[in-house]
Amino acid sequence: MADASRAHDREIAGRGRLVIHDRVVEAIARTAATEVGGVTRWGSGLDSVVGRRYPKADASTAGNRTRIGLEVAVVWPSALPQVLQQVRERVRTRVGELTGLEVDAVDVLAARIVQDAETEPRRVS
Known about the structure:
Elements lengths: L1 H12 L8 H13 L4 E2 L4 H5 L6 E7 L2 E12 L3 H20 L2 E14 L10
Parallel strand pairs: 3-4
Antiparallel strand pairs: 1-3, 2-3
């Protein structure tokens, strides 16, 4: 029985290889970051043209290992250390689950602080 299982594994391994592009890892990381409370998507169409849209992700993948850098916008008031730690953990978990890659590092930068919709000053006409 064990010989049949090993033969099957060799057959599957010989069929080809699986490559996950860095852009896929980056998209998963951006989505996972916004799943954390206190992190928000920020930026308009013009901001995306000039590179100021958040979250931003940069991944570097080699073999079955990856490193991810993230820049996020955090809602005011939020406890930055806790939010960034939660982002790091969420991104590591989701990328690992969805891609099967080993995540060596997730570096997170709070690049922008934005006011929550309830705390933004309202214009009175």
